[in-house]
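Appendix B. Raw example, untouched.
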Amino acid sequence: MARQLDLDLVEVAPLANPPVCRIMDYGKFRYEESQKAKESRKKTVHVSIKEVKLRPKIGKGDLDTKIRHMQEFLSDGHKVKVTLQFRGREMAHPELGSRLLDSVITQVDGLGKVETQARLEGRNMTMVLAPEKKAPVKKERTSGDPKTDESAPATENTPAAAVVAPAPEAVAEEVPAAPLSPADIPPAADEVPPTAIVESDT
């Protein structure tokens, strides 16, 4: 049957009893599977860790440049590993490194949060910052929004003024007619009064 249809006979479930086979175009099937895998790879978010190295005696200009790089990394969705390197007698004053890292945290506030607190590992003090998850922005409702349509039924939370009443001209009120007097009734066509005939002498 597969040869008659110019298709392939593919074994789908070899462990079943009896084995299950399917008639299909195997080349087209492989192409569709590769396209699905490609689309799924596009949707995945690749989070990488960027490392920024600092020194306890770093200058203000260099520190501002490093912090600017951290802000760019965090805004792009990357994690940042801050490594503070101590050398020589600097190991005797780890509190200087803690102050420096605290100032870094305050300057990247709003873009990143501390994922791993600062800890001393040998001659290095490391800290990991993770990007902040931004809350979704709520769209403002416009007059054309169907959710704010006036035809929507009023709920318990809807104020009474919000319920739209029909236009006055749309409501036809039945006003009782006043009784007519005999003088107001027009004569019928058959009942036209005869005109007076005036005879002249000439």
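End of appendix B.
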